[in-house]
Amino acid sequence: MPSSYPTRELCEFLARFTLSDVPPHVVERTKDLFLDWIASALAGKDAPAIRRLQEFAVAMGPQQGPSEVLVDRRRTSPWFAALVNAAASHVVEQDDVHNGSVLHPAAVVFPAVLAAAQAEGKSGAQLLTAAIAGYEAGIRIGEFMGRSHYRVFHTTGTVGTLAAAAAVAKLYGLDAEGINQALGSAGTQAAGLWEFLRDAADSKQLHTAKAAADGLMSAHLARAGFTGARRILEGAQGMAAGMSSDADPARLTDGLGTRWATAETSFKFFASCRHTHPAADALKALMQRERLDPEQIASVTAHVHQGAIDVLGPVVDPVTIHQAKFSMGTVLGLVAWHGHAGLGEFEQHGLRDARVAAFRDKVTMALDAEINAAYPRQWIGRVTVATTDGRTLEARVDVPKGDPDNTLSRPELEAKALQLAAFRQGASEAEMRTIIARVWALEHTESMADWLPAAA
Amino acid sequence: MPSSYPTRELCEFLARFTLSDVPPHVVERTKDLFLDWIASALAGKDAPAIRRLQEFAVAMGPQQGPSEVLVDRRRTSPWFAALVNAAASHVVEQDDVHNGSVLHPAAVVFPAVLAAAQAEGKSGAQLLTAAIAGYEAGIRIGEFMGRSHYRVFHTTGTVGTLAAAAAVAKLYGLDAEGINQALGSAGTQAAGLWEFLRDAADSKQLHTAKAAADGLMSAHLARAGFTGARRILEGAQGMAAGMSSDADPARLTDGLGTRWATAETSFKFFASCRHTHPAADALKALMQRERLDPEQIASVTAHVHQGAIDVLGPVVDPVTIHQAKFSMGTVLGLVAWHGHAGLGEFEQHGLRDARVAAFRDKVTMALDAEINAAYPRQWIGRVTVATTDGRTLEARVDVPKGDPDNTLSRPELEAKALQLAAFRQGASEAEMRTIIARVWALEHTESMADWLPAAA
């Protein structure tokens, strides 16, 4: 295929590769990502936005089916299971992120492939292969759409639809043409705008919900012969033409078969928007290094890339815990006063702690040319702190905690998973330990149909 | 509310007006539009793309419910009924269009309100009021998004999601805040790209399907308290920011309560893309005036607006009947050789008639400055014909057949409805005559729950 048709080259690769082509460390990392995703989905239990989507699934979907909704262990059709699980996994802001594409792949890929794999009785190896296809496609498409796209569009909503479609199309065993058709139907459904940030609205979960479900729908339709635009990405009236001004077609085929972008994905250590993490790491390091107490801090400047300003800038006075996760000042306040900005810190202190609120007003963001130039490949954290006794201190973190070069170990991932499961009793400790063991042995699972531990 | 927040002004109006505020001729016209829509939906029966969506509804949706799928008379939940009915009503290209917004309101508004009204046992008057809310909102939002949007985006897919959401939110009796929330969730799901035209792909029906179903979903979620961005249209990271370069906020509130845009909607006389109709009318008039036979025509230049070139230009060599409906040459060839480009002409001669295919190659489109300046307010048709004996003839039609100033009479609408019902035996003549009588009495219907004639 000529490079004038990079979408097709991508589809040829997605159709061709098998799990034996994937380096073992990438397969292992995919299992890490899957565990991290399950735990994130369980932690979404009882969130109001998720309850509304559960009720929608009951009102509009079948009352039984092959696919499980993790937060309530109901079974329904794959479309609704994907919908609710995707929303649930994106609500506590602990799900993974890929730096270069600024995509949250887990929240859109795994709900779609798990729901479809349960319905089709696919194996653990098939699920892993399909998930890798989703990550490889989604990450490259996100990079292709560029930074201009992310300024207005929530890439996980838009590009996530295609990532989910690619994953399920691979699970179904579609050929390159079939995957291409699935991407066509997915791309023409791709949506998601950042405007909700200003209102602390529930759209972020709606975006992952619809991306996963509509991606699954696109693959389902493609398998049945329903067609879509083949050049949905690069065509004259395709996604890039409509929603990007700096699209780079070369990214779509970057290192196919040699670069495994799945393994570049970062885990979240803090329970907040990833754009807050580099500065949070830097502030934490600075306070430890200088043995600084929070009351000694007069002001903090977080030096950031433009993407952080686009996404965090609209959040001035957070009114919900979810919105507080997009407030740089709140995150730094939690780190300063409570040492961490995890699930528990947000619950207890994210909105109601006057010291955190006062700290928030001491924080400003400033666009930094070097950091902005390195982004999105590298997410550098740098803070300047003015102390109450007149000193100016600075710290910098080049690789924030959770990035591939500073990743979470399996014990750390297991601890995080147990914590997320316990957060709203999404699963008991025994259930979560069973899930952990099953994920580590996933490639040997014959069928995903009844893979989850039976509901208590 | 200040004009800096026109979306809210629009929502206030939508929440406030009652059917008694609507001029009687607008109510009557809405009934015309509803009948025209039902007939269009029935004509979608057996189309392959519609069958795939029916199968999807069976695979993913409940096997029973309050809302009917018109083409197979199955009952399911409102989401799936809206999905299939919306797709079905847009496949034979006989559904209505509003000139100024270049929106097909019926195909997105009626499937959503009918499915929801059946589920909620709403009255005929409530359905009409809700449909008018959908038309008034959708048309203004389409005009707001402007011509730049339509160049890449299929407005009926994008804006259609908000039109359907407004309609169902009105049906539910939501207040201005609730309608605003519904629009927020709808706008962040709004999608639909023209790229499918090049491949004769099935996306056009997917667009109306998803717009109607997702709009319904947005209203359903808003009623339950699920929130969306309030300034989804005009906000800094809203729809206009992402998908338009000539958005005009004044259009959102244009003549609220005095201008009833619903009644500006045009009916389709030809069974093809509306952009072909003005030229088809002009060619028909020219051939009648000059008593010209098709073999006397050496070439035709159709003078058009830019929108016609954007949408029809990609279709060079149509391979499906649906794609032929977007081929200016095919439409003019049918008019020239068969006197009409209706459903039957497309079926019998749209692809397989060598004379029509030969005529197609004699047709070119040319951008016309005056026509382009009048568009989209006015859709002027002008053709220049070169005859085989060396003459140059010209004809112009300022108001194409079906526009409000040249509309279809009730007898013409009834005849069209009977023809569409008979096309694939979507309904028997007796059933369709019952439907016609019920539509004309719609405002007196107490409940839409079992409004359709019982399945044969």
TrEMBL record, chains A, B:
Boundaries of every MmgE/PrpD N-terminal domain copy: 8-250
Protein name: MmgE/PrpD family protein
InterPro entries named in the record: MmgE/PrpD_sf, MmgE/PrpD_sf_1, MmgE/PrpD_sf_2, MmgE_PrpD, MmgE_PrpD_C, MmgE_PrpD_N
Molecular functions per Gene Ontology: lyase activity
SUPFAM superfamilies the UniProt entry points to: 2-methylcitrate dehydratase PrpD
Gene3D superfamilies in alphabetical order: 2-methylcitrate dehydratase PrpD
Sequence similarity: Belongs to the PrpD family.
Lineage: Bacteria, Pseudomonadati, Pseudomonadota, Betaproteobacteria, Burkholderiales
PANTHER family according to UniProt: 2-METHYLCITRATE DEHYDRATASE (PTHR16943:SF8), 2-METHYLCITRATE DEHYDRATASE-RELATED (PTHR16943)
Organism: Cupriavidus cauae
Ranges where the MmgE/PrpD C-terminal domain occurs: 270-441
